[in-house]
Amino acid sequence: MLGSIANLAEGFIGLFRQGGETFMGLMTGILPTLIVLITAVNALIKIIGEERVNNLAKSASKYFLTRYTVFPILAVFFLTNPMCYSFGKFLDEKYKPAFYDAAVSFVHPITGLFPHANAGELFVYMGIAQGIEQLGLPLGQLAVRYFIVGVIVIFIRGVLTERITAIMMKQKTEKMTAKA
After folding, report:
1. Of 68, 124, 59, 134, whose CA–CA distance to 98 is shortest?
2. pLDDT tens-digit profile of 22-73?
3. Which residue of 72, 80, 129, 165 is surrounded by the most CB atoms within 10 Å?
């Protein structure tokens, strides 16, 4: 009986030790990189001027086509995953969910051409690439097709999510109006 209680206690504290190790891995791994990247991007925005950056972002996100293709591609390419989602701060609230959906859907398709954009997912692409190489097929074509299909998918997802968000916002407004 005492051995079972001791094993349970060891397992319980082991769970927290593992959590602590994971936390320290984040503290010495991705978090410093993200903090420096956030600082650099914010400094760059201050140097360029927030108004200019906002105007550029609004121009790049003015139309469906660019809002859900060019804008998320630039975000993922320059800021990489997961910092790329911060580009949403330049958008009106009604576009943020759709931008996030487009950006999060693009962090994998960009990997074949630009591995820096999502190094954490590189192993998935490399597994696929290994199979393609074993078939004797060229990797370049796979990477380009992967990228193109990714752009098509993010456009479709962005447009659909924007429409769904508009419907939900309208319903919320109608409910609030009905209560008043």
Report:
1. 68
2. 778 767 766 676 677 667 767 887 898 878 877 877 788 888 899 999 999 9
3. 72
